[in-house]
């Protein structure tokens, strides 16, 4: 999922450079949502992955 976030960020940067404002905003917002989903899943996996010995 982090890979998709990076892809959308790069797409947003390239679209912003070439002047495609709507595409850049859309790609950046998708990247932001995917990044927050990644963070939530990462924290959940850290919490649930701990086992007592």
Automatic annotation (TrEMBL):
Keywords: Cell membrane, Membrane, Transmembrane, Transmembrane helix. Coiled coil: none annotated. It comes from the Bacteria. InterPro entries: DUF1328 (IPR009760). Pfam families: DUF1328. The chain crosses the membrane at residues 6-26, 33-51. GO terms for cellular component: plasma membrane. The keyword Lyase does not apply. HAMAP family: UPF0391. This is DUF1328 domain-containing protein. It comes from Flavobacterium flavipigmentatum.
């Amino acid at each position: 999922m982090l890979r998709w976030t990076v892809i959308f960020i790069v797409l947003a940067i390239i679209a912003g450079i070439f002047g495609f404002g709507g595409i850049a905003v859309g790609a950046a917002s998708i990247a932001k949502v995917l990044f927050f989903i990644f963070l939530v899943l990462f924290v959940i996996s850290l919490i649930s992955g701990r086992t007592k010995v």
